[in-house]
């Protein structure tokens, strides 16, 4: 099991996500983002806006995604 925070994944807070795969942690982050969107959380909405700008460039988005995957893979698993 590995841990990353919302901020590490492009978000706005220190909420921790725990998962065995990058796909799982990305899904947890996405779910949290949707919850914060529905709560109209200002800091998360700003982070989402920044991500939307990144998505305008497929190359930049791929680079960001690949870097986050590597960051996850480089983490030491905990029990």
Q: How many helices in DSSP terms?
A: 3
User: Which structural class is indicated by helix and strand composition?
Assistant: mainly alpha
Radius of gyration (CA) equals 13 Å
Mean residue pLDDT: 94
- Biggest sheet strand order reads 1-2
Number of strands: 2
Largest sheet: 2 strands, antiparallel
Instruction: Indicate how many domains the architecture comprises.
Output: 1
SSE string, helix = H, strand = E? EEHHH
Morphology call:
flat
Roughly what fraction of the amino acids lie in strands? 5-15%
Helix content: 55-70%
Name the poorly predicted regions: none
Q: Kindly report how far apart the N and C termini lie.
A: 6 Å
Architecture overview:
The chain is mainly alpha-helical. The chain has one domain. The chain contains 3 helices and 2 strands, in the order ββααα. It has helices spanning 22-38, 42-55, 58-74, and strands spanning 2-5, 16-19. A two-stranded antiparallel ribbon has the order 1-2. It starts with a strand and ends in a 5-residue tail after the last helix. The mean pLDDT is 94.
Write the layout of secondary structure elements.
Blueprint: E1 2-5, E2 16-19, H1 22-38, H2 42-55, H3 58-74
Antiparallel strand pairs: 1-2
Provide the descriptors you would attach to this structure in a database record:
single chain, 79 residues, 61% helix
In short:
The chain is mainly α. It is built from 3 helices and 2 strands, in the order E-E-H-H-H.
């Amino acid at each position: 099991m590995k841990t990353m925070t919302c901020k590490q994944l492009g978000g706005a807070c220190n909420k921790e996500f725990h998962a065995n795969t990058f796909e799982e942690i990305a899904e947890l982050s996405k779910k949290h983002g949707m919850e914060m969107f529905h709560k109209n959380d200002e800091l998360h909405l700003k982070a989402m806006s920044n991500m939307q700008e990144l998505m305008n460039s497929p190359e930049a988005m791929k680079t960001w995604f690949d870097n986050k995957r590597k960051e996850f893979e480089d983490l030491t698993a905990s029990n």
